[in-house]
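Suppose a colleague, Dr. K., hands you the sequence of a protein chain of 331 amino acids and asks what its three-dimensional shape might be. Before reaching for any lab equipment, you can write down a predicted structure in token form. Begin with the sequence itself:
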Amino acid sequence: MRTWMASLILLAVPAFAETAPMAMPMPAATSDGTTVIVVVGAPGEEEYGTVFTEETGRWEKVVAQAGAKLRTIGLTAAGTGATSDFNLLKQAIEAEPTEGRGELWLVFIGHGTFDGKEAKFNLRGPDLAATELALWLQPFHRPLAVIDTSSASAPFLNKLAGANRVVITATRSGFEQNYARFGRYLSEAISDPQGDIDKDGETSLLEAFLSASARLTEFYKTEGRLATEHPLLDDNGDGLGTPPDWFRGVRAIKKAANGATADGLRAQQFVLVRSAAEQKLSPAVRAQRDELELALGKLRDSKAKLAEDEYYRRLEALLLELAKLYETPAS
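The predicted structure, expressed as tokens, is then:
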């Protein structure tokens, strides 16, 4: 019976099918390593150029300490056409794997503008619109952090928010268009041991955001000025963002809109310089651990909706999985 059926199948297949190879989709490139792309915008005035260069130097230092891959755009002689900063950034993003466990960090240092419809980051040459960057990043599924420390940067958060992404902006509105100082404090906090709020031996992106925001608030208070910038962080994908004063320690104490998971859980897992204990974990184990921690955070957010027994049953199951994971030898 099977021989007869096979003969019918062979007769039904056109002769050219025997020699025509089947087109197979190319697998997406993957990466388990961290890449940081630092983009320095047009300074406008010399004093800002000095500040931006200093901020870039601090990022370059911490990236080197982390052993991550670094690409800096905007400090060498300005190019035109294919070598403009706009195209160099596009090429750098296109060269990065879109899949994998390795984090991709994009750090924007400079000025921004907003015309009521589109926010742009000011580059030497053509500026970068939030819509354009969103299009370039659309294929990416690997962990992604976009940090825009420029003025009028809030619309970048709305455009770029998504799953497995952390987006930080210096402002809560595109109309906060004065020079933003947040970037200076963030570049200092990202490598500062004093920024380790939960005392686990490393400073996460969330902790750096909170530390930098606290220093920014202190600056305006000390100077007796009205704050003209209000940083936001989004990592739950709803595109709304959470201000730093919604956090106590590293936990958001206010609920996100529409029942979404609170911001901050994913940002707490983005770390450049890892502790000795973290460095012993393989990328695979660390990824599994991160997923379990996210599940724990979501469970805590839903505690009020669950019966007490059900909540603790789920909690115990997740904690047991975490315990087993830490018993797994690094590989």
